[in-house]
Amino acid sequence: MTWRRGSTLPEVRLPNDVLLHWREAGLASGPVVIWVHGGSVEDSSVMVADLEPFFGRVRALFPDTRGHGRSSRFERVEDYTYERKAEDVLLWMDALGVRQAVWGGASMGAALSLWIAAHTPERVRAVISISGPPFEPTAADRQWWAQQRPLVEAGRFEEYFDANVRLRMGEAALARLQARPDRYAELTSALRRHSVASLLALLDETYGRHAWLEECRHIRCPVQVIAGSEDSFPTVAMSRQVAEAIPGARLHVVEGGPHFPNRTHRAEVQRVIGDFLDAIGVPLGDGPTLETTGG
Which residues of 75-98 are buried (b: 16+ CB within 10 A; e: fewer)? Predict the structure, then answer.
């Protein structure tokens, strides 16, 4: 196992031979928060701003899960399941000497956090789930992927990227992103680390998942669920089902929020996160903070 720090992303070669990259910021001695990106076109770079107000009280870790960012990619659907992603991040925690953390994130990252809480509860202090769906994709989402799959098959990754952002955040959000050409190029170029086969495998797994809401009933740690009122998957009703399945879970609905309300309504979502950290006893920090790694 190797572990390199420096101006680039820290990385670790795990015992299962997966290379995992991450970003890190916050209070060096603070309680750990693992904050995970969404699936498909996402990576850890889009998550750092969510936790910036809390860098004085937590050690924030932002992993690139397998198939995302600069972490390892695979060309088989079965290599992208929640079970395999969880295996990686738990081995990564071991490598960092982290026994337990507050887990959370958005979309796939939120669902992965719930999955880990249900299956390895000893590693989870609490969960913050933003639009995390322990459900199978809707018929409309499966149809959407069937329509977009030829773009990926043809290697037209940038067009797929645009279609994905348009689906989850809307045309206006895509226009705002494209108005920042350097950032747009950074995000789309990350997809080019995929082969056609590896990106197809990642997306086929995403749109072929089965529902596992019943497994959430095993979760016993504190959970904050956050939903956007305009999200089509998971809908508010779906997010309410998640909250109702977990004893004592909280639900906050962001009015007007899309699938990623942590970006369109960031201040509101950060207030909810801060209240939740207070409620679970995360103290205010007063020690030195880490320099953010990986930009």
Answer: eeeebbebebbbbbbbbbbeebeb
